[in-house]
Amino acid sequence: MCGVCGIVSFAGPPDLALLRRMMGRLVHRGPDGSGWYRDRRAALGHTRLAIIDAAGGAQPLCNEDGTVWVSFNGEIFNYVELREELRGRGHAFRTASDTEVIVHAWEEWREGCFSRFNGQWAIALWDRRAERLVLCRDRLGVRPLFFARRPAGLLFASEVKSIFADPSVERAFDPAGLDQTFTYWSPVAPRTVFRGIEQLEPGHYAVFGRDGFRKAAYWRITFPERGREPGQDARENAEALRERLIEAARLRFLRSDVPVGAYLSGGIDSSVTAAVIARYTAVPLRTFSLRFSDAEFDEGQYQKQMSALLGTQHQDIVVSRSDIAAVFPEVIRHAETPIVRAAPAPLFLLSKLVRDSGCKVVVTGEGADEVLAGYDIFREARVRQFWSRDPASAKRTRAAELLYPWMARSPGQTPAFARAFFGRHLDPADPALSHRPRWDSTSAIKNMLTSELRAGMSRAGSEDVVTAMPAGSETWDPLSRGQWLEMTTLLAGYILASQGDRMLMAHSVEGRFPFLDRDVVELASALPARHKLFGLEEKYLLKRAFADLVPDDIIYRPKQPYRAPDAASFFADSSPAWFGEAVSERAVADAGVFEPSVVAGLLAKCRRTGGENMSNTDNMRVLAVVSTQLTHHSLIAGGGCGTPDRALPDPSVAVDVVTDHRSAP
To answer: Could you give the CA distance from residue 127 to residue 186 in angstroms, rounded to a whole number?
Structure first.
């Protein structure tokens, strides 16, 4: 894991001072080293978190004659196999790093190299001869990559605050990006919440040169036609899933030159990855868990059980509501976007525990709920599809009472509300039937927006993600359509970003995700729907594939999604010192997103109740207001930095073709 940034300028040599300022805003992503390259058209910067080939993998890195340069964030897990293949084709290597594999793979296969990579990456490659910049992002968006087009060039970086190091870049909210955030929980690439800032779509590469800018997909999320899935035997599919997950976990644990730990949440996903590492590697395993002082959210019982079973060296952190409130401004400075849940904050604290314990890398169970249909939203969709076939049936309406048993106010306890809420949009032909209730409840945030912003949203238009569904998706199983929507919106934009990369890299920790391995995802996508969601039993195949490694009371415990206290974090005890100013009438008016009088009414309601027993909608409203205000303060009104620039480590690579200066391995 690292930070990458750069400048392409066809109006004169790139500004080296600007490049170094951009790098300074990424030191948290790479505190172990830095490097840069500049010629008359391009400059690449890199801050390094050294994980593979610490001695020889300094970046930016080039080919033998210096005509291809790369700055790279992430890991290519099959780099060993690719290096041997490239050696067989005549390529010579001078390092043992996965970065150098990218350079030679580009020389050999050009754009075709990306589909050969199995990993997680954001790549910036400068082809000096062709004067072209190539940007590429991994299949599912594990690693971020942002860019801003300029009149005669382009800026790119791992984080928006790095691009904002250029004072000429506009710092303002994008109405369409906010519209998506307050619908889908995050912007959908290429949108961001900032005007003029784009993010490269997962599974895509972009090429920028004198002849313009173009993008193309090298991989897309896809599913087979319903009933025509290639493998129908559950036992064979379970064996195949087990084999691929074991290999994916081993690759992510063993291909590192620094200690690797694992998260244990108490659920089946992280239990499987930790159990596989413990069983199939000979390296002692360190595990880390997140606990809560609120019993409603705590899963410590199951975490301790799994740790004891595996014999791991285990550490945990207990997070309180006041802990969440205390770190929330820092969480938003790293997330760089409004959020509608407080869940990233405890993960920010967990990654600090990991780093303070001496680990740079953790393996987690992230992605399993998306690729193997583990979320309650898929169970909800199954119930609503059943209901939609006979909406007048009293028996079918009661199926909604089976949903969300872990909630304090579950549908089973409030059946009238459940029937009213889940009974909307019951159109079996709607490709987004699975997601309408979530999108509707989130969109209630927009009732608080200023009239000016709503008008701006109307003028800008917000792309409906449903219209982007692939041709032929109407032949997929409804579960597959729901998975596509979840992987396109929530996974890339929120789970892997606000909850994932940003919270991990805030403390210079790399996350690795076996369930998002290329081969695991392709197998999971090809499975029959019943092998993922059997009736209302989620992750049917995963449970059977690893029944010998994970105890029954974890495999078959009621599904409890990861959650954290939301509004109550800011009101239950005493509000944190920063809170009053952040949500003051003046600050809200300055940001121009929410109506100050409406915000004042919501906050007064929270103060009366201490934030307790708030509705789901009001919890999201509070988080949206607070996080939007903090985003505006740190990244728009605050000069676009978010965090103070940190001193760069001495560069291991410093190559300036413009002045004929060179300092590189």
So the answer is: 33
End-to-end Cα separation, the chain, in angstroms: 20
pLDDT for residue 640: 57
Tally the residues of the chain.
665
Beta bridge partners, 654, equal 36, 663
Residue 574: how many CA atoms within 13 Å on its side-chain side? 3
How many Cα atoms occupy the beta-carbon half-sphere of 170 within 13 Å? 12
Which helix or strand (DSSP H or E) is residue 540 part of? helix 540-545
Q: Is the peptide bond before 60 cis (omega within 30 degrees of 0)?
A: yes
Joined together, the tokens standing for residue 221 give 């999320």
Cα–Cα distance measured from residue 463 to residue 434, given in angstroms and rounded to the nearest whole number? 19
Tokens of 518: 């290329």
DSSP string, 351-375: HHHHHHTT-SEEE--TTHHHHTT-S
- 218-242 tens-digit pLDDT: 999 999 999 999 989 999 999 999 9
**CB burial string 461-471: b at 16+ within 10 A, e below:** ebeebeeebee
The pLDDT of residue 2 is: 92
Task: Name the token pair of 367.
Answer: 């992605």
The answer to whether 539 touches 236, Cβ cutoff 8 Å, is no
Phi, psi for residue 630 in degrees, rounded to 5: -70, -35
Q: Which residue is it, tokens 């359509």?
A: 481
pTM: 0.96
**548-566, pLDDT tens digit by residue?**
999 999 999 887 889 999 9
